[in-house]
């Protein structure tokens, strides 16, 4: 099972380094299809370690697990992360919810001198290979002809009159 690890200073400016590390490892392992999601998750977990763990450093580990990858962030804080509810106007506080939505599973493993926050990503078993041809007829049959509006049909559509109202008001 391939593994890679890096230790970074517990500073917000380490987050881009963490992202680049994960992206380059996944590319090297031929797992580019997981790179976008993995870098987003590692950004959140690294930022949490840098902002909240209050240690001097944190470590990132990545390993293959089945058809996917396991991402881990170790820090020296005993404080466990918690998802919180924030108002719609809040500019922070959605990181763990994002991790929860994107990861196949995630969790926290307490250690004697800190914790490991981890997330597992699975390769999308339902995704088509780039070399596969798309069955256009099957795709088109999923849509009803009633959904199509001919280009020469000039009926008023919802929202189309808003421009006219603005012009009339001027």
Describe the structure.
By secondary structure, this protein is an alpha+beta fold. The protein has one domain: Histidine kinase-like ATPase, C-terminal domain (Heat Shock Protein 90). 33% of the residues lie in helices and 24% in strands. The protein contains 5 helices and 5 strands; from the N terminus they run E-H-H-E-E-H-E-E-H-H. It has helices spanning 15-28, 35-52, 95-102, 136-141, 160-169; strands at 3-9, 57-65, 68-75, 105-111, 114-122. It has a 5-stranded antiparallel β-sheet with strand order 1-2-3-5-4, covered by helices on one side. Strand 2 (57-65) and strand 3 (68-75) form a beta hairpin. Helix 1 (15-28) packs antiparallel against helix 2 and helix 2 (35-52) packs antiparallel against helix 3. It starts with a strand and ends with a helix. Mean pLDDT is 78; it is low at 125-130 and 147-170.
In terms of DSSP E residues, the strand content is 15-25%
Number of strands: 5
Tally of helical runs: 5
Distance between the termini: 68 Å
Q: State the major sheet.
A: 5 strands, antiparallel
**Poorly predicted ranges (pLDDT <50, ≥5 residues)?**
125-130, 147-170
The shape is: globular
Mean pLDDT: 78
Number of domains: 1
Query: What is the CA-based Rg, rounded?
Result: 23 Å
The assigned structural class equals alpha+beta
Q: Largest sheet, order of strands side by side?
A: 1-2-3-5-4
The helix fraction, in percent, is 25-40%
CATH class: Alpha Beta
Looking at CATH, the homologous superfamily is Histidine kinase-like ATPase, C-terminal domain
CATH topology: Heat Shock Protein 90
């Amino acid at each position: 099972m391939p593994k890679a690890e890096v230790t970074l200073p517990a500073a917000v400016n380490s987050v881009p380094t963490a992202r680049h590390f994960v992206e380059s490892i996944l590319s090297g392992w031929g797992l580019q299809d997981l790179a976008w999601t993995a870098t987003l998750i590692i950004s959140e977990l690294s930022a949490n370690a840098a902002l909240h763990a209050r240690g001097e450093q944190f470590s990132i580990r990545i390993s293959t697990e089945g058809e996917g990858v396991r991402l881990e962030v170790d820090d020296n804080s005993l404080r466990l992360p918690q998802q919180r509810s924030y108002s719609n106007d809040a500019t922070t506080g959605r990181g763990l919810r994002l991790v929860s939505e994107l990861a196949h599973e995630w969790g926290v493993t307490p250690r004697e001198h800190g914790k490991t926050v981890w997330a597992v990503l699975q390769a999308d078993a339902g995704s088509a290979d780039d070399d596969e041809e798309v069955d256009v007829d099957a795709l088109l049959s999923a849509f009803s002809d009633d959904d199509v509006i001919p280009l020469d049909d000039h009926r008023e559509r919802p929202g189309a009159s808003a421009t006219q109202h603005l012009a009339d008001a001027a």
